[in-house]
Amino acid sequence: MLYFAYISIFILGLVFGSFFNVSIYRMPRGLSLGGRSFCPRCKSQIAWYDNIPLLSFVALRGRCRSCGGRISPRYPIVELSTALLFVLSYHWTRSFIPHELGVGEAFLYPELALALTFVGTIVVAVGTDIDSGVVPNRLIFPATALAAALVVGISIFRGEPERIAQSLISALIGGGFLLLVGLSYGYFFMKEKSEIPQGAPPSSKLEGTTAPEESLQSASEGTTTSREQAREESQREGEVRSGVGMGDVKLMFFVGLCLGYFHWYLVIPAILFSYILGGFVSLVLIAFGLLKRKERIPFVPFLGAGSVLAMIWGEKVVEFYLKLLS
């Protein structure tokens, strides 16, 4: 029965991994998550027998049946990663819950739903950040709401409502810390002074974006909207940008909410692991000339990896550190 449970969780992970691939592609583009899967290159619908996780990729040799275009290796990677993380989460809950809560062994615990929500959201967030450079609100808001509902429901079921408070505290610590670090870094290292002289017309472009046509038209007519005035003022006084994206902050809030149910302090090793991994990988890439010193790389993959490591080994790391202090 135990082997059957692990196999079932693995297959469930493959199925969800296939859906996560759809989410990674469609969410940043504002597309509906419903409807049949289609090839991003030729837009032809994918038959069910070409949409079997892992097996179809191997059978098709990594190419679309209709147009022959290459299928991104991201698809099997996400599917396999999700399946392995689901199995890891299942094994961890079976090891952690009896020890932590003093309950008997069982095939399934309600905490598994929270753990799967946690790792599933991490997978999609990492995928969208690598693929599109964003963590969509379409992902993080529903995931946070679901995690909050699970925390409240499971805490009441366990007769330990204090876990709701520690989960919220953990979320505030995680999101607040990342926001504070980002704003501090932005203020001291990313403040840009504008060279626009007084009285000059407002710029028609923001960094990386183009102003709407109406704004260009109003500027040419000598009128200025309130939004343009605020932009002009910020350009004259110097703009302070955050060292992290708000998507990172929202994701860290979500991470703290999930990990906080188990232990409020797990968010601390999650942050620590994330920065250690990010710093190490950055140094390696710089050493091999694959990354320039001032070039930025996505932080969410490291945040996701660090958070999963904190879920599995965070408690042991904290206990080891406390023993060293004592």
Description:
The structure is a single chain. The protein is mainly α and 326 residues long. Helices cover 66% and strands 2% of the residues. The chain is built from 11 helices and 4 strands. The strands form 2 sheets. The protein has a two-stranded antiparallel ribbon. A two-stranded antiparallel sheet has the order 2-3. A hairpin with a 2-residue loop joins strand 2 and strand 3. Helix 5 packs parallel to helix 9. The longest helix is centred in the N-terminal third of the chain and has 28 residues. The chain is globular and about 65 Å long.
Residue stretches low in confidence (pLDDT < 50, at least 5 long) are 193-240
Structural class: mainly alpha
The biggest beta sheet is recorded as:
2 strands, antiparallel
Count every beta strand, where a strand is a DSSP E run of 2 or more residues. 4
The helicity comes to: 55-70%
Shape: globular
N-to-C span = 43 Å
